[in-house]
């Protein structure tokens, strides 16, 4: 291969994935374990701060549950005093600690020996992106350095900027941040042979819900309206069921 192609990345709340478009179709890139989806988990070893991502992080979680981080996408780009962060930080399933960090941003406090260390959501997300980049480089047999990354349609400018920072920390140049509903519409219309019209895109993820009205015409995609709920995702359904039955 003369050069590595640009990859597409879905940095998800619960799972993340990378794909490449070649030979006329999109192809999911398996990670280093051969998995098509990578759990969005990060574990920091309390002795060395060595990082494990995905399934490996899940297997190590009980070694130091306070250093097992997930749902980083939910607080990336947010201030500690954000009402959303305040609602999140006391959730019973979160064994990690969310604290006030630099510039009043929300950060994680993890253990390193007898000390505590702050990790930003950008740093945590960068570990997932780095893992996906390395997996893609191995799969494509070429160094991957550029990507398009999808983000929720309701993401603020601060959240989008923080996502780009995470990618840069992972060694990736972001060619474009694309709204998740638009990414879905592009794939759908491509599969339907360049169909045009007005579409309702219902995007239920692990941590958020986006509902968007998108107009597709002459290969242009225009988002007319977006509504969403940052506390309505698959993980929230899980929590409700657990609370009900236990």
UniProtKB/TrEMBL annotation:
Assigned protein family: Belongs to the heat shock protein 70 family.
InterPro entries given in the database record: ATPase_NBD, Heat_shock_70_CS, Hsp_70_fam
Keywords assigned by UniProt, alphabetized: ATP-binding, Nucleotide-binding
Protein name, as recorded: Endoplasmic reticulum chaperone BiP-like
UniProt source species: Sitophilus oryzae
Molecular function per GO: ATP binding; ATP-dependent protein folding chaperone
Highest rank taxon of the organism: Eukaryota
